[in-house]
Amino acid sequence: MTADIIDGKAFAANLRAKVAAMVPAFREKAGRAPGLAVVLVGEDPASQVYVRNKHKTTVEAGMESFEHRLPADTTQDALTALVEQLNADPAVDGILVQLPLPKQIDESAVLATIDPDKDVDGFHVVNVGRLSTGMHGYVPCTPLGCVMLLKDRLGDLSGKDAVVIGRSNIVGKPMAQLLLAENCTVTVAHSRTAHLPEVVRRADIVVAAVGRPEMVKADWIKPGATVIDVGINRVPGAEPGKTKLVGDVDFAEAVEVAGAITPVPGGVGPMTIAVLLRNTLVAAHRLADVPYDEKAI
Ligand SMILES: NC(=O)C1=CN([C@@H]2O[C@H](COP(=O)(O)OP(=O)(O)OC[C@H]3O[C@@H](n4cnc5c(N)ncnc54)[C@H](OP(=O)(O)O)[C@@H]3O)[C@@H](O)[C@H]2O)C=CC1
Ligand SMILES: Nc1nc(=O)c2c([nH]1)NC[C@@H]1CN(c3ccc(C(=O)N[C@@H](CCC(=O)O)C(=O)O)cc3)C=[N+]21
What we know:
The mean pLDDT is 96. This protein folds into two domains: 30-131 and 271-287, Leucine Dehydrogenase, chain A, domain 1 (Rossmann fold); 141-269, Rossmann fold (3-Layer(aba) Sandwich). Strand 5, helix 7 and strand 6 (185-189) form a beta-alpha-beta unit. It is an alpha/beta fold. The strands form three sheets. It has a six-stranded parallel sheet. The protein has a three-stranded parallel sheet with strand order 3-2-4, sandwiched between helices. The chain starts with a strand and ends in a 9-residue tail after the last helix. 41% of the residues lie in helices and 16% in strands. Residues 49-50, 96-99, 121, 141-142, 232, 245, 264-266, 269-270, 272-273 line the site of 5,10-Methenyltetrahydrofolate (GUE).
């Protein structure tokens, strides 16, 4: 039997449309548009693509987009000063500093400078703490997008066995927290995990966030399991000189065993940007003191 393909691209388009539909009422009440500032340091080509996509989708949703491009040799002080300026700017509801940052910059110090109430990426320690204690804050976009796809597919996640492969601050750890909040029994696997294939084989839900192309094989997956592939890996393509994107799951194999699976591209990736707009919409409502129905999106 072949798995159902979870269409993250279509789900994300629907989510963006829902966000866009709520912008006019916000504008009416607040007298301004929701605003998202994206800061890009350096010229990493992949990051430039993401930043361009974010700008385009932000504008399409009727929001204000502020783009700040800084040279690769930007100092810590200059970046911190920009973040502080954005914190103070009433037109800015959400601030995203694109990661990774150049090596002369202390990433956690920069993230700590972002006003937690404008931290639409959910990377500030205050929001990490809010997530782990069940308070309302901002949840990292990629894991929140994954949970939306899972709930859409499976409904209530209570009691499901979930294995998250990867424990980074931006994907693995918040993913595990969110699944725990959904009453899953969560295992977090990483590079030191013993017997990884056996651990993964227990799971009703597998989330792969490793950064290793096609690492998760079909015989690691329990038949019928739901597989969420977060990995974005650029590898050599069929023709010389061409590249293609693959996930952390061997899709061609896994699709024969899983019950449902996200493709790469077209799975989790598009969800990340749609959730970013959703988080910015929520931030705008909170900062402008306009009531927001948390169940709306
Ligand atoms: N779709 C999207 O929007 C996004 C996609 N991504 C993609 O998701 C993937 C993960 O990203 P990110 O979390 O930032 O990556 P990191 O490199 O920060 O973390 C990778 C994690 O995988 C673990 N790991 C590495 N090798 C193995 C192995 N052989 N077996 C088991 N675990 C292993 C590491 O373990 P340890 O901690 O022990 O080192 C680590 O916890 C990447 O492909 C990235 O491009 C990331 C962000 C957003
Ligand atoms: N502060 C910060 N926040 C982030 O959320 C953040 C970041 N830094 N740094 C980089 C990672 C990566 N990331 C992606 C976003 C969209 C796609 C996406 O749209 N992917 C498309 C394909 C895009 C393509 O073709 O290259 C897809 O999977 O279908 C992928 C990856 C956000 N990240």
